[in-house]
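User: Teach me something about this protein's shape.
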Amino acid sequence: MRILFISPYPELRDTVENVFRSHPRRRDIDMEIRIMTVDQVSAKDMDAYDVVIARGLTAKRVRSILPQMPFVDLTISGYDVVRTLAECRRDFGAKHIAICGFYEKIYETETLRRLMDCEITLYPVDTFAELERSIDAALADGCDALIGGYSAVGLARKRGFPCKLICTGEDAITHAVNVAAETVEQIRHERVVAELYKTVIYTSKDGVLYVDAEGTIQVRNHVVKDMNRGASLLHKPLKATLPYLYAPFMDVLLSGQGIEGRVITIPSTGLTVSVSLAPVAVGGVISGVVITLSDITNIQKLESQIRRSINEKGLVAKYAFDDIVHESETIERTIATAKRYAASDSNIIIAGETGTGKELFAQSIHNASARRKGPFVAVNCAALPENLLESELFGYVEGAFTGTKKGGKMGLFELAHEGTLFLDEISEISLSLQSKLLRVLQEREVRRVGDTKVISVNVRIISATNKNIARLAKEGLFRSDLMYRLDVLRLFLPPLRERGRDAEVVFAHLLARLGSASGRGCPGIAPDALEPLGSYPFEGNIRELRNIVERAAVLCSDGLITKEDVAAALYPKDMESPERAEPEPRAAETAGDGRAEVERALEACGGNRSRAAKLLGIDRSTLWRRIKKYGIE
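Assistant: First, the predicted structure itself:
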């Protein structure tokens, strides 16, 4: 820190230097001492210093020409005055001593008179021009000696007036240096705080205003100015420039209570903002109000980013249309329709049997849509009981019910904000939950379980069902109004049995994936091995085919899947009761039907009775009895 010490007389320099050499903070301070009288003081070069130390008329002069300069007055102590009076009595034998200079008041003058055994008169001055008049007045009043500052003593000597200079002691100098150092530190701290507030205000993405108690805008950042089409706001009355904020401002000013999240539309721009107001109280008195304006659009974007960052895991759609393995024209047309749906933002319902790949298509639609950068959140509505499904969909606040998570929980609708929510098996939700779901779709708002606030959401719904929603609506099992909200675009996924040779293509694909996942490689496929797939009903579709692939891979030998292996995988043996004798044929089964079934199985397995028994789902002894019964060679 740079300190300028102005000394009115040369002798003071030695004392200041002596004090400074032993000062504990000498390494922190760059001290410069200038010898100058009051008439020599000017503003030149003084702005290079952090603080100025001066005394008497010199101090007053510095204050007048540099009012913003941090300043420390080098006070004259009572000890300095007593010492100088004593010297005056001793050297001059003075009976009436004048104290002349920039001293507004000398305390305990009566005590000084008794102590010094002389008359003491104070002649205070405010300017250098008054100094001569005060000295002449002291002479006229019969004073026989004078004490004062350097300028006063100089003028007194010219008049032949006995005088003594009041010298500043080391204690006063030490005190002045300490105060100067503390002043600089305080100023620097205040500057840091001021710069901090300035940085916070002017780098904020929200609009910030400070309005004083008189309703005048004292602080505003560029954001609030831009929100109001560049209107001139600084030092203007709030009521005239931003009238839409005046009523809430007065509410806070009069009540002393803040306001948060009040939604207001700015008339000049049509921009919707969330306004918060906080009172500024000093000593229990409200001096003004800080007003913050947040663009609702930015808030929603930030919320979406936070939601995704906190709950990123599991909220990404992994599959695209290129991942749908097929060869048939049926699925090609279905994919083309789905791509057109992806270009829209309307809700979609995907209908199809179990295992037809409804979530695969839902993820592909999401990844081809404008929402692909948003989250993809999936929930199976049939997998959760009603009360749990409600809290999963809408979230809950802490204490909403027993066992709630501390701080509450965000619902799936909130997690899917700006993205897609996939509701699988939508037909399984209860009628009461359907009503709540309908409200969310209508209002685009959710209310957490146990909460009073609503949260805006922007979500596209893709539903899936393996039941006829329209028939359920007619039967009163599904709300018609909800059906119309969900069933804007409908996508039907054909079953695997209607997809031509897709079963064989998907079989090979799943087998390759199985081998890659196991790390052991996949077995080969015999040329005719997949023929049995063509006549199989595939009631479980792709999900069932995945199990068939795993069984065939396990059943095969010598690293090759044969026709028999596939047949065995298609018709695994089921539970049977122990039998002592051949059971009677089923009512619908004739002897001819039984014979033909056994013959087809033996033909499919190349005469191998063990594999034929597996294909028929019976043990080998039962097959032997049937061969004997039907007379099959």
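Now, about its shape. The chain has five domains: 2-75+173-184, 78-167, 204-298, 321-494, 497-570. Residues 577-589 have pLDDT under 50 and may be disordered. If you'd like, I can walk through any region in more detail.
User: That's plenty for now, thanks!
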